[in-house]
TrEMBL record, chains A, B:
Protein's cellular compartments: Cytoplasm
GO cellular component: cytoplasm
EC category name: oxidoreductase
Annotated protein name in UniProt: Gamma-glutamyl phosphate reductase
Family: Belongs to the gamma-glutamyl phosphate reductase family.
Domain Aldehyde dehydrogenase: 7-292
Chain's gene name: proA
HAMAP family: ProA
MF terms (GO), sorted A to Z: glutamate-5-semialdehyde dehydrogenase activity; NADP binding
Superkingdom of origin organism: Bacteria
EC number: 1.2.1.41
Keyword check for Ribonucleoprotein: no
Keywords: Amino-acid biosynthesis, Cytoplasm, NADP, Oxidoreductase, Proline biosynthesis
Keyword flag Cytoplasm: yes
Length: 427, 427
């Protein structure tokens, strides 16, 4: 934590240092003060929506001129209505329970010392994300609610929008009596600014990359700042020998096709050999009707031929691919343990589901999985902070340390031991 | 987690891969099976103490021939009594509560889905440590108790001892029906084996370096495997204006001199200017009597001159040094906030103490610290898993993610969400 300010500080490091100062000022503030700042943010977003929308229009025009796809442009675009919705989301964050100050455990030791493990803010949270400007406000709001300073590094494609939004946020935060540097946009649009952020160990307490697999891989392998890995989801649905087959078809289609572009969508279905003859034709019909292309092993290809449905031959590439599209890999396995072995070999550790009426099979499957979430007779799509009832989500962690699965406000904190005595010494 | 076995696996990676297989086998085992293996280890250590002591004698002879200091040789040495004590420690671990399977939180969602967050083992835990062979058994026992496979990389100076100990452990584990590869010594005595371990991302779930600051710095900056940083303790004692000065002297001497070579010993004392005139002579007398050399600012030097005690002039090097010896840095500060600023600037984030009778000062000090533990009127030396009542300790984390402060068995686990429904789909 030794952090003297060298004269050679780059703009990114200087911003990180200011964030660290702001975090020190935020840490002791009670909830009411932080909530007041969040409400000021919501009000300011509504009052200054016009300037945000105008700045955004410049980003959108640039993106359009560069031939960006309409899907991406839609994610980038802010309207007055969308800004109002973002402000409303901030008000929802205000209403969430305060994670800071929670006593996680506590006891009075035999010698009379009072021991408390208390939740405290992490400090400076760096977030690296792609071209959705709403994330700028969501992430800042969750950081402030949990007492952290936010260092935001959005996509350069949304730089004008993010500058306008962060300007509004900083004014509101300062107006509420908090340091404006509690919310900062990482200066610069170049890749180099991301690299500097990754090397700001001792100034930035954690980096959360949100976005594509290659961004996340880069941050995880190159950062000296601790990282929370998010997002990649090569999720599996296993249909057991004792599955209710109608339920299995419904869960499979929902897991794959309800919204295929998200990390909790299913990418592979595995079917117990004992029900393959009955299940594969049902599944092929339903998946085809939902517009899904199946990439299957020999059993699925044969079933496809029987049903008059084209099944693409699957290779190892299919087992490891997160399609994020109307595609699914499919195999028949001899038994539950073979399904487990397949999943452990290929999963990204996000979410796996079993469909079964057999309590022993469900129990065994759950105990052998090494993933953040395991569904028993439920869609993989449920792995989500909002659906879990957390009220907010900063991302879905696929790592094991610190946070695993959907991350709410408590995952943006650490703890501190506070020990109170009256002159206690050790012997 | 994609981990096919390339033909080119080095011995270290091959060991990591076997550990991963063993971890998969360990994960679903209930407590009784794991406890049985631990009891078998304790019995085997006693039964085979002679061969352990013999192997250790070779290490000790080598160390002595190399001119190793007697302190280090003492840490390295195993006797029959010491092996019996290690076996007894293993039996203590058996008696600890099982962290695996604990439901951390749970609820029934509005749609009827049952949500449970359950503690599960991390998987493969790598531990890098120095020349104390008892750590080999302690670490293996804590890993097994928490359902993890242990990859142990001790000092090359204890290689023969560790090989003998791990041989005993593996036989006992296998005899109890668990995979022997749940406990492995990392093959090879070279530095390269540490580097390979640090690059085994996807096979090793966490690395815990225990030892000197330079080892820990290397692992933290070079490892692609997630690391839990342990140990460095530049701990502070702040004597407030409203301190009970007799209590302050006693706490200061206990914090510094009760055992100066450990991470929770105090390294700097800061004194409020309002009590400096009265406190410094008392402290100098007591510290001198305890054999402690003071490295002080001008006020301390002046007080030293008045008391006839030599006070070395302190520089920035003293503020940042973890002496681990009978030395302490000392300064007078104008007020509590100046003490806070000094500590935040120089601390390693381990433990800080305030001595005060003023509730407001205690509250402000606690809220402004950014360290793993804060003591109010208690010795810094209390930051310790055993003293906290955790029953066992794998290390003391000075980082914020995952674990902070003394790490017991729960810190060797992660969690998994288990969601149970009856065909639930998202809309």
């Amino acid at each position: 934590m030794t952090s003297s300010a060298p004269a050679s500080d780059s703009p990114v490091l200087a911003a990180a240092r200011r964030a660290r100062e702001a975090a020190a000022a935020l840490a002791p503030l009670p909830r009411t003060v932080r909530d007041r700042a969040l409400l000021a943010i919501a009000d300011a977003l509504e009052a200054r929506a016009a300037e945000v929308v105008e700045a955004n229009a410049a980003d959108v025009a640039r993106a359009r001129a560069a031939g960006t796809s309409e899907t991406v442009i839609d994610r980038l675009t802010l309207t007055r209505e969308r800004v109002a919705a973002i402000a409303s989301d901030v008000r929802d964050v205000v209403a969430l329970p305060d994670p800071v100050g929670e006593v996680v455990r506590g006891s009075t030791l035999p010698n009379g010392l009072e021991l408390r493990q208390v939740r405290v803010p992490l400090g400076v949270v760096g977030i690296i994300y792609e071209g959705r400007p709403n994330v700028t406000v969501d992430a800042a709001a969750l950081c402030l609610k949990s007492g952290n300073a936010a260092l935001l590094r959005g996509s350069s494609s949304a730089y004008a929008s993010n500058e306008a939004l962060v300007g509004v946020l900083r004014d509101a935060v300062a107006g509420a009596g908090l340091p404006a540097d509690a919310v900062q946009l990482v200066p610069g649009e170049s890749r180099e600014s991301v690299h500097e952020l990754m090397r700001a160990r001792g100034l930035v307490d954690v980096l959360i990359p949100r976005g594509g697999a290659s961004l996340i891989r880069t941050v995880v392998t190159e950062s000296t700042v601790p990282v929370i890995e998010t997002g990649t989801g090569n999720c599996h649905v296993y249909v057991d020998e004792l599955a209710d087959l109608d339920m299995a078809v419904e869960l499979l289609v929902n897991s794959k096709a309800q919204r295929p572009g998200v990390c909790n969508a299913a990418e592979t279905v595995l079917v117990h050999a004992g029900v393959a003859d009955r299940f594969l034709p049902l599944a092929l019909a339903a998946l085809t009707a939902a517009g899904v292309t199946v990439h299957g092993d020999e059993a699925w290809q044969k079933a496809g031929a029987g049903a008059g449905v084209r099944v693409e031959p699957a290779t190892d590439v299919d087992w490891e691919t997160e399609y994020l599209s109307y595609d699914i890999a499919a195999a028949v396995v001899p038994d539950l343990d073979a399904a487990v072995a397949h999943i452990r070999r290929w999963t990204s550790g996000h979410t796996e589901a079993i469909v079964t009426r057999d309590t022993a099979a469900a129990r065994r499957f759950v105990s052998l999985m090494d993933s953040a979430a395991v569904m028993v007779n439920a869609s993989t799509r449920f792995t989500d902070g909002a659906r879990f009832g957390f009220g907010a989500e900063i991302g879905i962690s696929t790592q094991k340390l610190h946070a695993r699965g959907p991350m709410g406000l408590p995952e943006l904190t650490t703890t501190r031991y506070v020990i109170t005595g009256e002159g206690h010494t050790v012997e």
